[in-house]
Amino acid sequence: MEIITCSNVTKKFGDFTALNNVSIDVPKGEIFGLLGPNGAGKTTLIRIINQITIPDKGEVFFNGKRVTPQTVENIGYLPEERGLYKKMKVGEQAIYLAKLKGMSTAQATRELKQWFVKFNIQGWWDKKVEELSKGMAQKIQFITTVIHKPELLILDEPFSGFDPVNVNLIRSEILRMKEEGTTIILSTHNMESVEELCDNIALINKSNLILSGNVDEIRRKYGNNQIEVIYRGAESLNVGNAPVKVVSDQEYKKNRRAVLEILGGAANAEVLSELVKYMDIVSYQELIPRMNDIFIKLVSNS
Fold first, then answer.
1. This prediction's pTM
2. Which residue, 34, 20, 60, 300, is CA-closest to 157?
3. Fewest beta carbons within 10 Å, which of 82, 167, 171, 300?
4. Lowest mean pLDDT among 22-26, 77-81, 97-101
């Protein structure tokens, strides 16, 4: 079942078309990657889902019902453009934002204190926001985005500005929330994060949807049905009767590395069982293109 359905959404700003007849479905309980270069229309779509702006054409549904201003109560949104009130104390700021989500002061204080301990920032509760580093401020904003346990969480470049330790911390929290049933829309340029986290993606470029679907299926679709074989014990490759074409075969460290194209849709087991007759295989793996390569190829050609 889909938590978000965008049907033929179009949005213009004067003569500029930000979104052109875009339709996407976001499955419930998954991490959904919203991808595209700068200016592609991603942020406009996010703002439409959040009722910040209204589409010129098309409709957006949340759990099968048209989105309304009340729908936003079930959404947590962390925009790329961060913003906190610099002169407020950190704890006061966090409580204020939590109360805007409908939480009481007591409930907000209790749960925020727990989050501050988890993120190891409890010593900053009474300091002013202007004293925070960029990474520290982003931790506060992440916490205040998720504090009310939204059904849908929209994160726009959530890892920007974090060191590897804190990237791992945020990633772990995202995965934990997914396990607890939260649906997450992740808007990012980090294709490594897409491969690690996302179940499905939609790629928007120049206001148009140019690709959508399951991440693993997309990567296999854009592959060349090739495998890499690292082997030893032979001076050159002997493929026997394996249904393959040799693309390359060369020295690799103290072994040899061959790239083979599997022919006729043969199974890996069939290929491997033939190859092991002639060589000592160190490793055997499919060469599936990275999302970064697919992203660049599709954006460059559209």
1. 0.86
2. 34
3. 300
4. 77-81
